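Changelog-adjacent note: as of this version, every example in the card shows the full chain rather than a window. The one below runs 98 residues end to end.
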Amino acid sequence: VDFASLPWNMNLPDEVNYVHLTTTGEWTAEHYDPASDTGSLFDSVYKYSDTSLPIYPSTTSLNYGTTIWEGLKCFRKKDGTPVVFRPDRNFARFVRGA
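Full-length structure tokens:
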């Protein structure tokens, strides 16, 4: 397989970011407050080229398929408004995976 020619951004790790946020309970405004667009979520975004995704070999989702791996494409428009690309299709994939 010629991985360099594949059409997704994993070939360009400088352009790939991920969120690694661990919660111990409910999701709250401390994690993300939509009214102020702030929260600890923003401190949990990492560039894949700087820090690879920390997954342990004993992760149950790898061994037993107990996790749904799904991502959203999110970006900001020129005016700063946040946009999520096709969230309805993301939700449909999530439901099919569950």
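Structural remarks: The mean pLDDT is 76.
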